[in-house]
Amino acid sequence: MTFKITKATPSDYPSIVRLIQSVWDRLEQKAWFAADNSDYTIQMLETGQGLAFKATEQETGELAGIFMIVFPGLSQENLGRDINLPESELVKVVHMDSAAVLPEYRGYSLQRRLMQAAEAEARRRGFRYLMCTIHPDNHYSRDNVLEQGYHIAATKEKYGGYIRNILIKELEAV
Question: Which domains are seen in the chain, by residue range?
Answer without folding.
Answer: 3-170 (3.40.630.30)
